[in-house]
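Re: Re: ligand-bound prediction request (bumping)

Still looking for help on this. To restate: I need the protein modeled with adenosine-5'-diphosphate bound, output as structure tokens. Inputs repeated here so nobody has to scroll up.
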Amino acid sequence: MDSFRRVLSYARPLGRYWGPYLGLSVLSLVFGVLNYGLLGPLLSVLFEDPAAAARVAKPEAAFSLDYAMSWFQWLLQDISGTGGVLAALALVCGAIVAASLLSNLCRYLSARIVVDVETLTMKGLRKDLFSKIASLPVGWFTLRRKGDVLSSVTNDVSEVQNAVAGAFHVFLREPLLALGFMAMLVWMSPKLTLVSLVALPVSAFLVTMLTRRLRAGSVVTQRLLGLLTSHFEEAISGSRIIKAFSARPFVERAFERDNSRHRSQLRKVRNRQELASPVSEFLGIAVAAGVLFYGGWLNYRGELGMSWPEFIVYIMFYWKVLEPAKAMAKSYAVLQKGLVSAERIFSILDEEAGIPDGTQAVPEFREAVAFDHVSFAYDGEPVLRDVSLTIPKGHTVALVGPSGAGKSTLADLLPRFWDVAEGAVRIDGTDIRSLRLDELVKLMGIVTQDTILFNDTVAGNIAFGRDDVSREEVERAARIAGAAEFIEKLPEGYDTPIGDAGARLSGGQRQRIAIARAVLKDPPILILDEATSALDAENERIVQQALSSLMEGRTSLVIAHRLSTVRHADCICVVKDGRIVESGKHEDLVAKAGLYSQLCSLQDFS
Ligand code: ADP
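Reply:
Sorry for the wait, this slipped through. Here it is.
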């Protein structure tokens, strides 16, 4: 329930909503009661013997239901006496229509309040999820978690939204309606009502039994739904690979397996959920039949103490008591599902995998970036062991070596995508963990193999995240990155939406947009992680040129698969099994005839 309180806190201050909601529900209830209460006089007017109609005298004024009812009865008789039965009939029908109109109007207005709360919590949850996702460390998103998070953002949020409406019903409206109608029943006949009350705990117990295991089932269903979402994610982002490897049957089979599991689990949960309402309805009707029988029996013995129109109204109120009971059973089930979803959402929001921010302001970069006896492990699996490396300002250091050696991991430590396990990464001698993260990343530009392009215009993608840059600056950056020419040929030039152009851009073109982004950012430190690996020779040459102009005058850490691209680096470090096994200039390393020269000969390059 704590999660639920937390969900509702998104609509703070809640009093602004539940107060008016309760007020409108009371009004709706009063008019609803009136609506049904008026049926008694209607029946009397229609069917009772007019000769016996002179019974009611004008009642003494008082503030009570009794007075209101007797007064209306009296009024009716008065009107039918002067204007005839039809006039009385018209009055009753008019009153019924008016009461119903007001009751439903109040109900609608109260529903609008629930919609406010629902949409506010939905918006708040999505907002927090989005900022959390944007702040979580890069490595947090494994494929499974990606699916889970996506399904939380879509499905869990709407489950919670349903549950919010459910909560207003379960906790406020329905109990109020049930109590209101119950009060009417007690008022009309305490004796008869007492009998029916006995049945209530029995049905409550049965419904609780039915919905008890709903929650455990929901947890499994939501988890499976997360899995399904990750299948979709894979199919969309891996669409090329799936086709290229004719892997459709394979991925479809894997999807089908989880889809069936989800379906059968959901089926169990839903079947159980659907039971709640019919069972409570059946129990209600069984009890109502008992009441009818008992009432009939009392009437038979002349002990009922009600006229027959009153008895009919009594039975109608009885039906009305059943409705909130049914609605509560149903909403309770929705609430349970919503709670499971809320817990999933909060488990993401409470994820503490964030990188702790430092407090120190970042001074201007002057001397060197240094990895100082750095070790690192992913989940206990050591990846970097005691690595020391210094990159003096203005130098280019290249990391080469077999894949899986730990090169990207080493580069990821610099912008603090991960934190070292032992040792430290220092900029001008200061441990980067003590520096303010937002200022630290401002020092760095990163160009990787997979250029992420966002659903914005080309210019928006180059200026990415900054709205203080002019069109001229964007164009200048594009020119330096060698991207200006092809961008100008796009249908709307710099204003072409990437969403439309994305598929038409080649790998090299996308890469040049990413480079233009780095040029514009103008950082003193550059990290280039296999920036040209995915390109063909021609594109590689063009992109390499763009990179060279980008690297001019900056300090760069370059991870390269093709050794020819880093030949002129100030220092080349060969990484193997998480260690730097050789380092030096190209010529020196070749002369050493070690791992580097082996790698060179593998690539026919020396
Ligand atoms: P390289 O860049 O040299 O190819 P990486 O730094 O990418 O190597 O990877 C080094 C090792 O760490 C590999 O064995 C890889 O499987 C593992 N690894 C990389 N990223 C993760 C991650 N997010 N979680 C767990 N293991 C990882």
